[in-house]
Model the fold of this input.
Amino acid sequence: MAMAQVPPSRVLSAQIANMLEGIYEARELGDVDREQRLQDQIIQPLVWALTSGDDDLLELSVYCISLLDKAVSTRALSQAHSASSRDLQISESVERVARLSEQRPY
Amino acid sequence: MPHATNLLSITTLLHGTWARRSTSQTEWWEPQGQFAQAINGRVGDLYTHSDYFFWSGSNSDSARRQAAQDFVDWVNQRRASQGYLRVICHSHGGNVALLSANAGLSINKLILLGTPIRTDYIPRMNRIGYIVNIFSPTDHIQTAGSVGRRRGEGRSLADTNQIANHCTIDPNTRHSDLHDWSVWQQQGNNFDALL
Done:
């Protein structure tokens, strides 16, 4: 199976931001199916962002992780951690995202 | 004890959510950073002592409110009574500054860079002399920082005689480019003239 290609950072940030909006909207409207679907879909782009080493994508990841259900954010952080195990800098960034986003923003 | 007190004029930078101290490089918001040095070249009163202001950057309202109170204390320990304060803020650092004004801090000039514009962080203009609000129209990080609390489109404030909005000339300017001196000086931006 072909590996999905990581999009350019501008495209990736737009994708994640749009899905984040969709998740919040679905949650507000009580559309559980849509919310769950989007939370599943956001994991891979979020893992790419978490392992990118890009400051903007990492800040976006903080906002994203803060909003997601705990189980989903844990999956994303765990996958990112596994993917970054040989890169100390990226591994530290993933831990930092987790630390900065551990509280709900509101 | 603060390293400097009774200052007649202070310019300081307020970083946002992701900013961190690094042992391997100087960050843009630290006094020895490239952007900070460029700012100081223009204003001359950047606070450059080693006890510069830093906050946790945690993504929570409580962390921002704590940072705001800490910033009020930090300024009051260093600024002379009636002294001038200019604050240049990136991302949620801008909301820390707005909260500090709400907590009683007088800010003469406040420059916001990609600050998420939110309903829970409304500028109280009786404490702020002038706001320069700089944003990029495609800054997804800025809007992500206001999900659930967005005011308007999350980028601009109402233009008044105390508030001016400035959109970057390049619509593809990134969130972190907003504290890049070359972007500030770019033809069509000229943000350095707004200091």
Q: What stands out?
A: Chain B has a mean pLDDT of 96. Strands of chain B lie at 7-14, 79-90, 107-113, 128-135, 163-167.
